[in-house]
Specification:
single chain; 4 helices; 82% helix
Length: 124
């Protein structure tokens, strides 16, 4: 039975690490936009995404209570779904290049998969 607990912790750690790495890939190059006085939307979208992802990763690996962990994972799932669905829709309706649209679609797909894994992991 102890082996199952170790496997669960390793699986949760793997999902948490994947969330952090995918967030760094998606938003790492965009952090520079935050100091340009762009807009409050840039701060919310980029800064919020980083904070929400880090909270979700922490919730997966920490010993915080189930209600708080579930709430943080739910926040990540909702944030990810809304933000990336909007991003994909806006990009595909826009005049950007096909490569730009495909990259953003791939980033969104990665986040959708991670949100699914995080949510289902909290449910087990």
């Amino acid at each position: 039975m102890a082996g199952a607990g170790v496997r669960d912790r390793r699986r949760r750690l793997g999902i948490a690490v994947a969330i952090v790495i995918w967030t760094a890939i998606a938003w790492g190059g965009r952090i520079g936009l935050l100091d340009g006085g762009d807009s409050i939307w840039a701060w919310a979208r980029i800064g919020g995404s980083v904070v929400v992802a880090l909270l979700a990763a922490w919730a997966l690996v920490s010993a915080i209570g189930d209600r708080l962990a579930d709430g943080l994972i739910l926040l990540f799932v909702v944030w990810t779904t809304v933000l990336w669905t909007r991003s994909v829709a806006v990009n595909w309706m826009g005049s950007g290049s096909l490569a730009f649209k495909l990259v953003h679609t791939a980033l969104a797909a990665g986040f959708f998969v991670l949100a699914w894994f995080a949510w289902t992991e909290r449910r087990t």
